[in-house]
Protein backbone atom coordinates (compact mmCIF):
# COMPACT_ATOMS: atom_id res chain seq x y z
CA UNK A 1 0.00 0.00 0.00
CA UNK A 2 1.49 3.31 -1.09
CA UNK A 3 0.40 6.12 1.21
CA UNK A 4 0.24 9.73 -0.01
CA UNK A 5 -0.10 12.75 2.25
CA UNK A 6 -1.40 16.26 1.69
CA UNK A 7 -1.24 18.66 4.62
CA UNK A 8 0.43 18.62 8.01
CA UNK A 9 1.89 15.20 8.87
CA UNK A 10 2.52 16.61 12.36
CA UNK A 11 -1.12 15.76 13.07
CA UNK A 12 -0.13 12.08 13.11
CA UNK A 13 1.67 12.71 16.41
CA UNK A 14 -1.53 13.86 18.14
CA UNK A 15 -3.99 11.80 20.14
CA UNK A 16 -6.59 10.78 17.57
CA UNK A 17 -10.20 9.64 17.83
CA UNK A 18 -11.47 7.57 14.90
CA UNK A 19 -15.07 8.17 13.86
CA UNK A 20 -16.85 5.48 11.88
CA UNK A 21 -20.56 5.42 11.10
CA UNK A 22 -22.87 2.97 9.43
CA UNK A 23 -24.90 4.26 6.51
CA UNK A 24 -28.14 3.39 8.36
CA UNK A 25 -28.83 4.77 11.82
CA UNK A 26 -31.77 6.20 13.75
CA UNK A 27 -32.57 9.91 13.77
CA UNK A 28 -32.11 9.92 17.56
CA UNK A 29 -28.58 8.62 17.09
CA UNK A 30 -27.88 11.31 14.49
CA UNK A 31 -28.66 14.01 17.04
CA UNK A 32 -26.37 12.37 19.60
CA UNK A 33 -23.58 12.23 17.02
CA UNK A 34 -24.02 15.93 16.21
CA UNK A 35 -23.68 16.69 19.92
CA UNK A 36 -20.53 14.53 20.03
CA UNK A 37 -19.08 16.29 16.95
CA UNK A 38 -19.78 19.69 18.49
CA UNK A 39 -18.05 18.58 21.70
CA UNK A 40 -15.00 17.31 19.77
CA UNK A 41 -14.86 20.60 17.88
CA UNK A 42 -15.15 22.69 21.03
CA UNK A 43 -12.47 20.64 22.82
CA UNK A 44 -10.11 20.82 19.85
CA UNK A 45 -9.77 17.02 19.64
CA UNK A 46 -8.21 15.45 16.53
CA UNK A 47 -10.73 13.31 14.63
CA UNK A 48 -9.70 10.81 11.96
CA UNK A 49 -12.18 9.28 9.52
CA UNK A 50 -12.85 8.48 5.91
CA UNK A 51 -15.82 10.84 6.14
CA UNK A 52 -17.56 8.82 3.45
CA UNK A 53 -21.00 7.88 4.84
CA UNK A 54 -23.65 10.62 4.96
CA UNK A 55 -23.33 10.96 8.73
CA UNK A 56 -19.52 11.03 8.54
CA UNK A 57 -19.76 13.81 5.93
CA UNK A 58 -22.11 15.76 8.20
CA UNK A 59 -19.62 15.39 11.07
CA UNK A 60 -16.84 16.66 8.80
CA UNK A 61 -18.89 19.80 8.07
CA UNK A 62 -19.34 20.36 11.82
CA UNK A 63 -15.63 19.90 12.44
CA UNK A 64 -14.55 22.17 9.61
CA UNK A 65 -16.36 25.05 11.34
CA UNK A 66 -13.98 24.72 14.30
CA UNK A 67 -10.23 24.98 14.54
CA UNK A 68 -9.30 21.48 15.76
CA UNK A 69 -7.13 19.09 13.73
CA UNK A 70 -8.75 16.67 11.29
CA UNK A 71 -7.31 13.69 9.44
CA UNK A 72 -9.23 12.60 6.34
CA UNK A 73 -8.33 9.15 5.03
CA UNK A 74 -9.43 8.62 1.45
CA UNK A 75 -10.35 5.17 0.12
CA UNK A 76 -9.36 6.42 -3.32
CA UNK A 77 -6.48 8.25 -4.94
CA UNK A 78 -5.46 11.70 -3.75
CA UNK A 79 -7.53 14.65 -4.93
CA UNK A 80 -6.38 16.29 -8.14
CA UNK A 81 -8.30 19.40 -7.12
CA UNK A 82 -8.85 19.86 -3.41
CA UNK A 83 -12.50 20.66 -2.59
CA UNK A 84 -12.96 24.33 -1.66
CA UNK A 85 -14.14 23.57 1.89
CA UNK A 86 -10.83 21.81 2.60
CA UNK A 87 -8.48 24.49 1.28
CA UNK A 88 -8.57 26.80 4.30
CA UNK A 89 -8.02 24.03 6.91
CA UNK A 90 -5.09 22.79 4.79
CA UNK A 91 -3.62 26.30 4.69
CA UNK A 92 -4.05 26.51 8.49
CA UNK A 93 -2.09 23.23 8.93
CA UNK A 94 -5.03 21.66 10.78
CA UNK A 95 -5.95 19.15 8.09
CA UNK A 96 -4.11 16.11 6.83
CA UNK A 97 -5.48 14.20 3.86
CA UNK A 98 -4.18 10.67 3.45
CA UNK A 99 -4.71 8.51 0.37
CA UNK A 100 -4.13 4.80 0.92
CA UNK A 101 -5.45 3.55 -2.40
CA UNK A 102 -4.93 4.45 -6.05
CA UNK A 103 -8.51 3.64 -7.07
CA UNK A 104 -10.39 6.28 -9.05
CA UNK A 105 -13.33 6.16 -6.64
CA UNK A 106 -14.12 4.71 -3.30
CA UNK A 107 -15.99 1.41 -3.31
CA UNK A 108 -16.85 -1.35 -0.90
CA UNK A 109 -13.49 -2.93 -1.74
CA UNK A 110 -11.62 0.26 -0.90
CA UNK A 111 -13.62 0.63 2.32
CA UNK A 112 -10.86 -1.38 3.99
CA UNK A 113 -9.46 2.02 4.92
CA UNK A 114 -11.47 1.58 8.11
CA UNK A 115 -8.80 -0.83 9.34
CA UNK A 116 -6.11 1.74 8.57
CA UNK A 117 -8.10 4.42 10.41
CA UNK A 118 -8.57 2.21 13.47
CA UNK A 119 -4.90 1.27 13.59
CA UNK A 120 -3.81 4.91 13.73
CA UNK A 121 -6.39 5.97 16.32
CA UNK A 122 -6.03 6.09 20.09
CA UNK A 123 -9.81 5.83 20.54
CA UNK A 124 -12.60 4.61 18.26
CA UNK A 125 -16.19 5.86 18.09
CA UNK A 126 -18.45 3.64 15.99
CA UNK A 127 -22.08 4.41 15.32
CA UNK A 128 -23.81 1.32 13.96
CA UNK A 129 -27.20 0.15 12.86
CA UNK A 130 -29.85 0.40 15.53
CA UNK A 131 -33.11 -1.53 15.57
Sum up the structure in keywords.
131 residues, alpha/beta, six-stranded mixed β-sheet, 34% helix, globular
Q: What does this molecule look like?
A:
The protein is an alpha/beta fold. It contains 4 helices and 6 strands, in the order E-E-H-E-H-E-H-E-H-E. Helix 1 packs parallel to helix 2 (54-64). The protein is globular, with a radius of gyration of 14 Å. The chain starts with a strand and ends with a strand.
Task: Give the topology.
Blueprint: E1 4-7, E2 16-21, H1 27-43, E3 46-49, H2 54-64, E4 70-74, H3 84-91, E5 95-99, H4 113-120, E6 123-127
Parallel strand pairs: 2-3, 2-6, 3-4, 4-5
Antiparallel strand pairs: 1-5
Helix pairs in contact: 1-2
How many runs of DSSP E, i.e. beta strands? 6
Mean pLDDT, all residues: 89
Estimated helix fraction: 25-40%
- How far is the first residue's CA from the last residue's CA? 37 Å
Radius of gyration: 14 Å
Shape: globular
Largest sheet: 6 strands, mixed
Strand content: 15-25%
Spatial order of the strands forming the largest sheet:
1-5-4-3-2-6
Number of helices: 4
SSE succession: EEHEHEHEHE
Q: Unreliable runs, pLDDT <50, ≥5 residues?
A: none
SSE-based structural type: alpha/beta
Summarize it.
The chain has 131 residues and is an alpha/beta fold. It is 34% helix and 22% strand. The chain has helices spanning 27-43, 54-64, 84-91, 113-120, and strands spanning 4-7, 16-21, 46-49, 70-74, 95-99, 123-127.
Amino acid sequence: MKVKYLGSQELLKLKKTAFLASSTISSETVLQVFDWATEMRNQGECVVSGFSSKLEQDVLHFLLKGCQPIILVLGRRMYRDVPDELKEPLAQNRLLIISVNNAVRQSKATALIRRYICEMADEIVFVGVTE
